[in-house]
Design goal:
By secondary structure, the chain is an all-alpha fold. It has one domain. The chain is built from 18 helices and no strands. Helix 3 crosses helix 12, helix 11 packs parallel to helix 17 and helix 17 packs antiparallel against helix 18. The protein is globular and about 55 Å long.
């Protein structure tokens, strides 16, 4: 029904509809983050915002390789790329289900989530699985250019999640179990059926064929996964380390990180839309991408300035009693995310030109420097530590940008 009304608006530009869908998802995350302090007492709030960021972290890490591999390979062999992606998705979800039964597994321990009870631990992993399946489905729809279907699914998720929030506020106890169930799992139930429908087109033997095509797909995805995992971990390591140092400060950082999606969503939309539309062997294709990137820059910077202003005003109006550190933390994080995202527009070509070895090396170095910097927590003011970490993230992205420029000069000059 929603798709029928969409046609009335004639979204002829797929990029626009794709961006709108991502903006809606980002806005939903933004609003969730904004209402958490109003919904919950301080102790539950600290738990929820931290777990929210850990769900985002795990999904960003897990989603990196397979989605990129699907979008990149769908232009070469669409049918095989989809099968390889679906097999990878199934194997990942099975792994996550198994992890949910072991409370002292390495992931739970490294994220300082061992204090969750068995039910909360199980629901945490199913929250990761549910959102993960949604993100994979979105990549499948992107590869198949089903942007109206993607938009429709997003509307349903928003509506079900809104109902879930009302249920938590009016009808059930405000517990972490109910938050995970009604906000992070139930809104994405329909995504399971979409994935199952895709899987039903394959026999068990065809799907679980570990042939050369799958191994080649997996090899590429693993390299993207390692680069992406290192970047995501470096980006949010400060929240994890703070959890062990001071849970209240960790919650403050997690709360500030919750606003960053508004800034990074344009980067995400741009990269995921163009990743399977750039042909490195076609000079015109690459230069057309760079031309669009230049046109995009001014709009992006205006969007960032407006976003920072709105976020700071909203925090001041609704959370006057929250720690005053939230303002500089949020501003620094947003500027860091804005600059790294802006540089990241061009760095999409790292995947297109298969320069992943540089990305992995730089991101590994990024993790090591951030880790060493965070050892000084408690000895140096938190804002100085945050500034150093932010500069490391920006400078690393700048180096990758220069590597891409050098490759462009070698190929096309």
């Amino acid at each position: 029904m929603i798709e029928r009304y969409l046609r009335l608006f004639s979204f002829k530009n797929d990029m626009v509809l794709f961006t709108i869908t991502n903006l809606l998802y980002s806005a939903m995350v933004f609003i969730l983050n904004l209402i958490f302090p109003l919904l919950f007492e301080r102790e539950l709030f600290n738990q929820v915002v931290y777990i929210f960021q850990m769900i985002i972290l795990l999904n960003s890490i897990i989603n990196f390789g397979i989605s990129t591999g699907l979008l990149r390979n769908s232009t070469i062999d669409k049918k095989n790329a989809l099968r390889c992606a679906l097999l990878s998705i199934v194997l990942i979800q099975i792994s996550l289900v198994l992890l949910s039964f072991f409370q002292n597994n390495p992931i739970t321990t490294s994220l300082f989530l061992s204090d969750l009870n068995s039910l909360e631990h199980f629901l945490f992993y199913f929250s990761v699985i549910s959102i993960n399946i949604y993100l994979y489905n979105k990549s499948i729809m992107n590869s198949e250019k089903k942007f109206e279907k993607m938009f429709t699914n997003m509307i349903y998720i928003i509506l079900i999640r809104a109902i879930g929030i009302l249920v938590i506020y009016f009808f059930v106890d405000k517990t972490l179990t109910n938050v995970l169930l009604f906000i992070f799992i139930l809104p994405f139930v329909c995504e399971y059926f979409y994935l199952l429908k895709k899987l039903s087109k394959y026999t068990f033997r065809v799907l679980f064929s570990f042939d050369k095509g799958f191994l080649s797909f997996l090899h590429f995805c693993m390299r993207v996964f390692i680069a992406g995992a290192l970047f995501s971990y470096a980006d949010r390591m400060i929240i994890i380390k703070m959890k062990n140092y001071n849970p209240d400060i960790a919650a403050l950082f997690a709360f500030a990180f919750g606003f960053l999606g508004v800034v990074s969503v344009l980067n995400y939309s741009f990269q995921n839309y163009y990743i399977n539309r750039i042909n490195p062997g076609d000079k015109q294709s690459v230069f057309s991408f760079l031309e669009k990137l230049n046109k995009y820059s001014l709009h992006y910077l205006i969007f960032v300035i407006i976003s920072i202003s709105i976020i700071c005003v909203l925090i001041y109006i609704f959370y006057a009693d929250i720690d005053v550190l939230i303002f500089p933390i949020t501003i620094i994080l947003i500027f860091k995310t804005a600059i790294t995202s802006y540089l990241g527009f061009k760095n999409i070509l790292i995947t297109s030109f298969d320069l992943l070895r540089y990305s992995i090396s730089i991101n590994l170095l990024r993790v090591l420097i951030v880790y060493i910097t965070l050892l000084f927590i408690g000895k140096i003011h938190l804002l100085y530590i945050l500034l150093i970490v932010s500069l490391v993230m920006i400078f690393s992205e700048f180096i990758l940008n220069k590597i891409v420029d050098r490759k462009l000069n070698v190929l096309y000059d």
